[in-house]
Amino acid sequence: MTSRDVAALRARGRELSNQLQSATSRRNTLAGQLEDADGLNKTGIEQRITLLDQRILGLERDIAYNGQLLASAPASLTSQTEVATMGPMGLNPGQIAGITIVGTIFVAFPIALAFARNLWKRASHHAAPPASPESGQRMERLEQAVDAIAIEVERISEGQRFMTRLLTEGSAPALSVGQKAAEPVRLPDRDAVRASRESA
Fold it and tell me: Which domain holds residue 113?
C-alpha cells in the first residue's frame, strides 16, 4: 500500500460518512412524515424507510471495512498522508480558507476603507483658487448687461400690454348718425405720373 492509497482510503471514508449522514437525515424526515400518513401513503413511506435502513447498514459496513484497511496500513504511511494533507501550522485547507476570509473581512476591509476615506478628505480639502480682479469686473459687466436686458424686456411687455388694451377696448370712435364712412384716397395712375414727368 502506498501513501496515495492511504489518501484515497481517507477520502473514501469521508465520502461514506457524508452519505451516511444524508441517508440518516432522510430517514428521520420520513419517520416524521409517517406519523401523519395514512393508507397508501403510509405504506409507501414504510417501504422507503426500509430501503434507507438497508442503505444505512450497507454504508456502515463499508465504513467499517474502510477503517480496517486504514488500520492495516503502516503507521509511517498514515503519518505521511496526515502531514501532506495539513497546511502550515497543522491546519487543513478548509481552516486556512476560513482564516483568510475572516482576516480579509475584519482586517483588510477596514484598512481599505480608512485609506479611501483619507483620499476623499484630501480631495475635498483643496482650497479654492483666489478670485482674480478681472473676473470681478466681468461679473459686474455681466450684472449690468442683465439689468439692461431686463429693463428692455419690461418696456417691450409694457408696449404689448398697451397695444392689446387698444385692440380689445375698440378705441376707434363710433360713427354718428348720418356721417359717411371715410372713402379711400385714390392715387393717380403710375403711367400718367411717369408721362407727366417726362413731358416736364
Answer: 88-121
- Chain centre distance of CA 159: 56
Whether 187 is covered by a domain: the verdict is no
Q: What is the pLDDT of residues 47-97, one digit of tens each?
A: 888 998 999 899 899 988 888 887 777 766 555 544 445 555 556 666 777
Task: Write phi, then psi, for 178 (nearest 5 degrees).
Answer: 80, -5
Residue carrying C-alpha cell 500500500: 1
Long-range Cβ pairs for the range 71-75 (8 Å, 24+):
72/1, 73/1, 73/5, 73/6, 73/9, 74/1
pTM above 0.85, yes or no: no
Residues 77 and 97 in one domain: no
Split into its structural domains, the chain has a count of 3
Q: What is the dihedral of CA 78, 80, 82, 88, to 10 degrees?
A: 170
Say if residue 20 is in the same domain as residue 81.
Answer: yes
